[in-house]
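hiii, so i know i said id send this last week but things got crazy w the move. better late than never?? heres the sequnce for the chain we talked about at the cafe, plus the structure i predicted for it. fair warning i was half asleep when i ran it
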Amino acid sequence: MENIDWKNLGFGYRDTDYNVRCSYKNGEWGELEVSTSNTINIHMSATALHYGQEAFEGLKAFRGKDGKIRVFRMDENAKRMQNSCDGILMAKLPVEKFEEAVRIAIKKNERFVPPYDSGASLYIRPLLIGSGPQIGVSPAEEYLFIVFVMPVGPYFKEGFKPTNLVIMRQFDRAAPQGTGKYKVGGNYAASMYEGKKAKANGFSAVLYLDSREKKYIDECGPANFFGIKNNTYITPESESILPSITNKSLIVLAEEMGLKVERRKVPYEELAEFDEIGACGTAAVISPVKGIYDNDKDKWFKYGNQEEAGEWSTKLYSKLRAIQYGDEPDTHNWIKIIE
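okay and structure toks below
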């Protein structure tokens, strides 16, 4: 095996040994197949290429101190992918088949699961695409599901350190009542231009306001937003937000730790009132925020001591990571051990 520097992986693509595939044809899903190829042969008129019929997921597996490999809440990823399929009319993969494909992909690539003390994990990318040809705007009749994996380090190179976000009102991530709540590629394509612009100016991501009125907080680039004030964990309610499995988990932990939880519209003006702000998602768990710059109003909102994550962000991050790595009991049945 090549010599992998586990502590300095970064968050990027890396070839591993195997991926798992499954095809949908003639109205039914076939058997799972293991492949060593990192390419796919696809019809030039596939709906994924022309009409954006594709959805994906992201989840992680972790090697514990006991050497066991744990995968976090994969049933939720399977259900979310089914929801994306409903949104863009793709064939839904059964939850059991999704989970089995993930298990096989992890097991076959076990040597790429980073060691416990490295701070790295195995990133798992399930992908579903319309592979059947169409030239009219209509759903494909054939689909291809793939699960591939790779070892990764922190999503943001800073790791669990506070970064700055930027508000730019001239950009929208998704339309109201559009595809924002589905994990489909078009939402990410729509965020690339302003995301690159933000990074070029020293910000980690764009903080989007709602697309209709620009009055409320929506999403932090590729992650969900949360703020903490008055012993309350507050996260936006919006039809345009992807329902984050990490956010869902943090809400449960926040309540257990004694915080109140509010999922509601969060007005822009409330940014001045939070003690802590974070962006949460699979890739980073929590990315603490030290400041938000409103590019249109030339105005800053600053949080905490700027150098370290806030008290509650740290507690929530540490608790969730401890469950994922098996350092603390999994009282919610979130973890599946890969035997």
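btw The helical segments are 47-50, 74-88, 95-108, 185-200, 245-256, 311-324. thought thatd interest u
miss u guys!!
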